[in-house]
Amino acid sequence: MEQQIIDPLQNLNLEQQQQKTTEQKSLSPPPPQSLNEVEKMIGYDFKNKELLKEAFTDASYKTEDGVSYERLEYLGDSVLNHLIAKLHYVLYKSMAPGELTRLRAANVDTEALARAALKYDLHKYLRHRKPLLDVQIQEFMEGILEYPSHSYGMIDPPKVLADILESLIGAIFLDTNSSMDDTWKVVERLLQPLITPETLMQHPVAKFHEACQKSGLKPYANDMWNKTGEIEIYINDEVIGRGCYKLKKIIAVNRAAHDAYKNQFGNKDGGIGA
Amino acid sequence: MEQQIIDPLQNLNLEQQQQKTTEQKSLSPPPPQSLNEVEKMIGYDFKNKELLKEAFTDASYKTEDGVSYERLEYLGDSVLNHLIAKLHYVLYKSMAPGELTRLRAANVDTEALARAALKYDLHKYLRHRKPLLDVQIQEFMEGILEYPSHSYGMIDPPKVLADILESLIGAIFLDTNSSMDDTWKVVERLLQPLITPETLMQHPVAKFHEACQKSGLKPYANDMWNKTGEIEIYINDEVIGRGCYKLKKIIAVNRAAHDAYKNQFGNKDGGIGA
């Protein structure tokens, strides 16, 4: 067994360990639904319908003009980050920058955005040729049943779902003639319910680590991820937590820490997934 | 000698290796110059002078109301990132997101912002109790003489200089009633000259690595940073580059790669520092 003191657990080598999911090209992309429905759903009518179309075109779709949502996503990301930064700056007048950063991250990370996109069925309107996407989305939908608000790294959101939301935000921003206020009116609805300081949870590794420090416990990890996709957490030669996820090590680690916390310290504080 | 194949050089363990510079408290802070001068210099008159004052108050100064520029800096960072993202989105209509990201990063990284702050002498107006700051600024001023536009990681900009610029941007944004357009008018001037796709350089490690790959060379590094602050780069048992910087390993590595590139491939392409 390889023993590692988990202080912090993040010391496990997590880089470059995401296994690539193969995405074969399918010949017949799913027929996109009418984008009018998106406009109704999000409560915003585009003046320039081309922007809306661009926002819902994945690079895999290969249009004649080579357009895809990637540039809109880049722009939308900066719009969204600013909108949430400003909201929090105004709402939480005495919050320190570190806390503001953590709160914003939880609201705009891949999982939060993927959840919002799914809630509005935005993926159904995406023009793409990614045959595995439906399976990934299905898995994500099953995953979030266990974690009603945010899993904090315990499930694996398909990045494309978050991308759609960001590209849509970029498109709205341009369509409103770069009006942050008008964009916010739409975005605020899309992101409900926002995570607040009251509902913000600690990431499982930080939470477990902190509890161990308080109790003077020295946990260590048995890293079998390369072989089995599994991480075990030990205290005093006894397994107290296990986590498994073959595609991304960080998720296996988070699950192991969450499991270990639950077993070692109970879950009476309404913690993650409680 | 510890041999390491540098493929990429970034494999050198660069985390947590920045030595903390000790900052003793001085009893008498330098008397701040009048903030009117800042307004004249940047061409913007604050309606709310308190915002301006807040933007120029470091946490070390310990005001009675506990105000410092940190929250304004957080806000200003999101404003600046969005402004540059939008500018590039509009200017470079066919640029891929990866390139947009790289171009933005070069324009808003600590060094770029520190250079702008220094150009307008903004540090002279900062209320702080950091007796070592003047020395650090002096070193930075000497460093940039060698690299007229951007050193791409070869010199060590004092973070506080970049912070002042971001907090100033946050203050202007609030003072203009959250007008991105009005804020941009000031920011655009402050950041001149912006780095463009034509003037954007590769980071030294990437540049060296790429040239080695093209030439089929296999460089490796001798990492003596922990002992002497030095990194040596070898090809076939021969030292071809050296870099030294005791406070931050990444800077020693960048300097070594730059030196190795110069010695191995010449510097005829108008490269960094040419």
UniProtKB/TrEMBL annotation, chains A, B:
GO molecular function, one term: RNA binding
Ligase recorded as keyword: no
Cited InterPro entries: RNase_III_dom, RNase_III_sf
GO CC term, one of those recorded: cytoplasm
One Pfam family per UniProt: Ribonuclease_3
CDD domains, sorted: RIBOc
Cofactor(s) this protein requires: Mg(2+); Mn(2+)
Residue ranges occupied by any RNase III domain in the UniProt entry: 35-177
EC number from the UniProt entry: 3.1.26.3
GO annotation (BP), single: siRNA processing
Highest taxon above the source species: Eukaryota
Assigned keywords, A-Z: Endonuclease, Hydrolase, Magnesium, Metal-binding, Nuclease, RNA-binding
Entry-linked PROSITE patterns: RNASE_3_1, RNASE_3_2
Protein name, as recorded: Putative ribonuclease 3-like protein 3
Organism: Helianthus annuus
